[in-house]
Amino acid sequence: MSGKLPGFITGANAKIRFDGITVAYATDVSYNVDTLTVPVECMGRYEVLSNEPIAYGCNGTLSVIRYTKEAKVAGVDGAAVNGNPASNIGGTTVKFGDHLSPSTMLTSKTFDLEVYQKTTQAAGGTSGVEAVYKIKDCRLTRRGATLNKRGVLVDTYAFVGILAEDSDGTPVGTSGETDLA
Fold first, then answer.
1. How far is 83 from 67, CA to CA, in rounded Å?
2. 3-state secondary structure of 13
3. CA nearest 172: which of 134, 130, 122, 118?
4. Distance between CA 88 and CA 95 in Å, rounded?
5. Which three-class secondary structure state does DSSP give residue 105?
6. Could you tell me the residue ranges of all domains in the chain?
7. Are the C-beta atoms of residues 105 and 98 closer than 8 Å to each other?
């Protein structure tokens, strides 16, 4: 059968957006949704009566391949003039570096992290993007780096968010009712 489109989301056809801007050279993203519970106990019973939910949260990590200002000189598409340190990654109002600097962390703004899939129409050949998931009101909590002898420098950022949504806008792990209006 010809003309079939792939039905899987892969790293080859996904984009990561931070504050509405595509993050160049982002390589990995992962997230977790947690519901914290407390056991309800009763005197005279060894087992708990129930485990009741008390909080919802999401967290995750993303990795970005680092490059220097020489990448722009070498003609790399989309490379920033000064490279991509944390102070350069982000939109016009929110920067990764603002969340990690002691002088700006208290005044830093949250961001939405979005993962999109690049799509292509078989007949028309036009391409677009389709939302996969979104994590609202994120804050960075940690930054680390990995460099090995045969590899490139990769920064890994950890974040926490308030609410994760699937592609249809339904919050992940909830019934769809939220108080985040």
1. 5
2. helix
3. 134
4. 7
5. helix
6. 13-166
7. yes
Enter the tokens of residue 72.
């722009």
What is each CA distance from 1 to 4, 8, 82, 98, in whole angstroms? 7, 18, 48, 51
Strand stretches in 71-126, DSSP E: 111-120
Q: Are the CB atoms for 110 and 93 separated by under 8 Å?
A: no
Instruction: Please tell me the total number of residues recorded for the chain in this structure.
Output: 181
Tens digit of each residue's pLDDT (9 = 90 or more) over 58-72: 999 988 888 887 877
Amino acid type, 172:
V
DSSP state of 171: B
What are the backbone angles phi and psi of residue 108, rounded to the nearest 5°? -70, 155
**How far apart (Å, rounded) are the C-alpha atoms in residues 174 and 132?**
17
Name the pairing type of β-strands 50-65 and 163-166.
unpaired
Tokens 């994590």, located at residue: 135
Considering the domain 13-166 in this protein, what is its CATH number? 2.40.30
Give the pLDDT score at 4. Answer: 63
Report the C-alpha gap between 73 and 57 in whole angstroms. 42
Q: Strand runs (DSSP E) across 78-180, as ranges?
A: 111-120, 127-146, 154-161, 163-166
- The values of phi and psi at residue 105, to 5°, are -65, -35
> pTM of the prediction?
0.76
